[in-house]
From TrEMBL:
Species the sequence originates in: Nonomuraea insulae
Domain of life per record: Bacteria
InterPro entries documented for this protein: Hydrogenase_HupF/HypC
PANTHER family: HYDROGENASE MATURATION FACTOR HYBG (PTHR35177)
Pfam family, one: HupF_HypC
Family membership: Belongs to the HupF/HypC family.
Name this protein carries in UniProt: HypC/HybG/HupF family hydrogenase formation chaperone
Amino acid sequence: MCLGIPGELIDFLPEHADLATVEVSGVRRRINVGLLADEELRPGDWVLVHVGFALSKISEQEAQAVVDYLEGLGQPYTDELDALRASDIG
């Protein structure tokens, strides 16, 4: 199962305009935010992350609702977090 997981933008990589650090349930990873080039993104914003890409900007309330739902899935959510821990965009 592939999930889109909410992540909070922590900072941007100045040497790579399309890369940012997000925190997803305590896991920090670099992701590509290039698909949201038309959005005004700032640290503290929430994005929906899938396979290393930010797909859309979402509100904090939407992010919390999705996290609550995903946590209720149990193992699929745990598996997705494990995959996130094991990956990183360099």
